[in-house]
Amino acid sequence: MYDITVDLVPGLPQIPFRNGVGAYEGVVAHATSNYQPVGAPNERAWMAQNYEDAFVHFFVDWNMILQTASTDYKAYGAGPKANPRFLHIELCQVRNDGSPEASARFTESYNRYVWLLAYLLFKRELGVSSATLWSHKRVSNELGGTNHEDPDDYLAEWSKTWDNVINDVTYLYNAFTTPPVDIRKLKADEIRNEVEYMFTLLPQGDGESEWALNYFEQVYDIMLEKNLVREIKH
C-alpha cells in the first residue's frame, strides 16, 4: 500500500542481530519526541551527524516511509537488550494545533506507521504478539537499558493508545497473510482488478514477499483455468 524510500546513511555500523544477519525478532515502535515541519528527511539528516549516539532503521512521516539503515543489522535505538533483537521505527510527530491540516498529517503518518510495523513483522513471519511488537516505553519498563516512554504520550495527544497500535497492526498483518477475497468466485474483470490491487500492497522494490508471490500464483492458475491467459512453455 505504501512505497518505502531507501536512503541509507553511509558508514553505519554493521553488527548482526543476536541470531544472525537479517534475523530480527520483532519491532520497536518509537516517536521522535520533537515537532518539525519537514519530517523524515530532517530526521535522517540529524541521524547522519549523530549515529554514533543513536540511529534507527526507519522514519515515518505524512509523506513517506524512509529507510535509513539496513534491516540486516542492529541499530542503536532502545538500549543494549533490545538492539540485538529488534528493528526500530520512528514516527515523526505532528503538533496537534486543532487544524484540519495537522489532523490529516497525523492520520497519514499513523497509517504508514502501523502498516510498516505489520509489513516488517510479516516479512519474517513473526506474527503480532507481545514478543514481537514493542513500544519503546515497554522496552524501558520490561527490558531496561533505556528510559524513554514513547510513543505512548505522543499518541495520546491524538486520542490514540498503544492498544490501538496493537489492534491496527494485527488487522494489517492478517490482511497480508490472508488473501482479501476468494478469487475462485471472481469474474474475469474482477480477477484483473485483483491483480492490480495486489501490486498496490507491495512496497516499491520488494517483489519477493512470499505471501504476494503465492497469491499471484493462485491468480495465475485460475486465469489459466478460465482461459484468460495462455501458458508459456519453455
Rg estimate, integer Å: 19 Å
Broad structural category: alpha/beta
- From the spread of the alpha carbons, the general shape counts as globular
* Proportion of residues in β-strands: 5-15%
* Overall tally of structural domains: 2
Residue runs with pLDDT of under 50 for 5 or more positions: 204-208
Q: For the record, what CATH class of the largest domain applies? A: Alpha Beta
Which CATH architecture of the largest domain is right?
3-Layer(aba) Sandwich
Task: Tell me the distance between the termini.
Answer: 34 Å
Number of strands: 6
Question: How much helix is in the residues?
Answer: 40-55%
| Strand order of the biggest β-sheet | 1-4-3-5-2-6
Topology-level CATH name of the largest domain: Lysozyme-like
Number of helices: 7
Organism: Paenibacillus cremeus
Protein name: N-acetylmuramoyl-L-alanine amidase
GO molecular function, one term: N-acetylmuramoyl-L-alanine amidase activity
Domain N-acetylmuramoyl-L-alanine amidase: 15-152
Q: What distinguishing features does this structure have?
A:
single chain, 234 residues, 41% helix, globular, Lysozyme-like, 2 domains, alpha/beta
Describe the structure.
This is N-acetylmuramoyl-L-alanine amidase. It comes from Paenibacillus cremeus. With about 230 residues, this protein is of the alpha/beta class. It has two domains: about 170 residues, 3-Layer(aba) Sandwich (Lysozyme-like); about 45 residues, no CATH class. It has seven helices and six strands. Strands 1-4-3-5-2-6 form a six-stranded mixed sheet, with helices on both faces. Helix 2 packs across helix 5 and helix 6 runs antiparallel to helix 7. The two termini are about 35 Å apart. About 0% of the residues have low confidence.
